[in-house]
Amino acid sequence: MSQSIPFARRQLGAALACVALIALPLCARADDTAKGKIIAKRWCASCHVVSSDQTKGNSDAPSFSSIADDKLTPKTLKAFLSYPHPKMPDMNLSRNEIGDLVAYIRTLAR
Ligand code: HEC
């Protein structure tokens, strides 16, 4: 009997760790504008001017600050980025990456 209490505790600890591991990615996650900027520079800057320190992009692609100025809601932007766009390659962005990108783009509004 004296052995069963620590065992039960260990079981409980393991169970809680499992719950935490499963729940973490599901918990509300704050969109990260710094990550969004990194993704934008890596994946979007070949066409879009994505930040004020970038001088040149593809003339067909609107700058991110002009996108930020358009009255697109975060929801519209997220929906746009969730599907491949004819002139844009399919980037296969995750929901978190899209959230970070949209949060970053919105910091550029003038
Ligand atoms: C290969 C070039 C290219 C790349 C790379 C690219 N885009 Fe685009 N994007 C375009 C072009 C061109 C348009 C304009 C499409 C049009 O007018 O039909 C556009 C349009 C958009 C729009 C819509 C703007 C509006 O007002 O409707 C958003 C938002 C956008 N891009 C975000 C992104 C993001 C975020 C990335 C990086 C993950 C990215 N783009 C990467 C070329 C690109």
Automatic annotation (TrEMBL):
Q: Which residues constitute the signal peptide according to the record?
A: 1-30
**Which InterPro entries does the UniProt entry name for this protein?**
Cyt_c-like_dom (IPR009056), Cyt_c-like_dom_sf (IPR036909)
Residue span, Cytochrome c domain: 31-109
- SUPFAM superfamilies documented for this protein: Cytochrome c
Molecular function in Gene Ontology: electron transfer activity; heme binding; metal ion binding
> Is the Heme keyword given for this protein?
yes
Per the record, the domain of life is Bacteria
Q: Sorted alphabetically, which keywords does the UniProt record give?
A: Heme, Iron, Metal-binding, Signal
UniProt name for this protein: Cytochrome c domain-containing protein
